[in-house]
Amino acid sequence: MITQFAQDVLSGLNATPKTLSSKYFYDENGDRIFQEIMNLDEYYLTRCEYEILETHQRQILDLFIDGTSKFNLVEFGAGDGYKTKVLLECFLNAGVDFRYRPIDISGNVLQILEDSLEEEFPSLKVEGIQNEYMKALRELENGETRNVVLFLGSNIGNFKQSQAISFLKGLYEGLNDGDLLFIGFDLKKDPEVILNAYNDKSGVTRDFNFNLLTRINRELKGNFDLSAFRHFPTYDPLSGTTTSYLVSTKAQTVEIMDTAISFDAWEPIHMEISQKYGMKDIESLATQVGFGIVRNFYDSRHYFVNSVWRK
Ligand code: AVJ
Fold it and tell me: What is the pTM of this model?
């Protein structure tokens, strides 16, 4: 049997330009390295969003509960729940009637999260959905209860413009009138600050990218020589796109599941994009998809925004 992972890796490396999908960064090692990234001095995103949630938790709750008595709090890609727990604690203390529904493709990640929530917030009603985002949406309630969808961390930034639109359109279709989306965007800012976040001095982000080659070596019988590749992130202030490449430092052939992949000297593999937005970009995105913007919450430096959208 050939897995989706194997298929995607082989077709990506046989394409021009060569490309790998950043969704495969997150194996067990990748999850751990991403935790390290979130603690880096240069990686401001997590701290900015945390500041927003911490500072505005009451106002956020007021919007979620506005005009209703209860809601389902649905989250795409909850991870360890570090940021979400700020809101969960606030909502529980306020005595609000809500249920938390984290969505993750990984049953393992969900179980760990559910266990830690049980421990920290025994009274919280949790019902995880193990599925792909769009498929999980079909399990959402169509009835009385308002759905509030959290999509934090600038995870939308991993999508190209066209993918972001179709993803959000799919989400919009799955929601009911009056449902809310609470979505985090990393904003355009000093290009150097942005580039440094993806090019940290200690090389953690480099290891994060290289980990996918290691994963391919292990899971797909690959023989990537990591020392013959270089990590090269770029930021284009015009498009707002951060792009990460791994560049082959020489002409070489790599074998993956008995398939030979040849690299020219200095040929790149496109690994990941992290899109940065201006407020106008965000407004036009919401409008194109059909959402109305209810309110924007910023950190003190205006590095990041959490935007509340209503269907
Ligand atoms: C998890 C997609 C928000 O793009 O900033 C961090 C992933 N990649 N450093 C991002 C990531 C390199 C991160 N997201």
Answer: 0.96
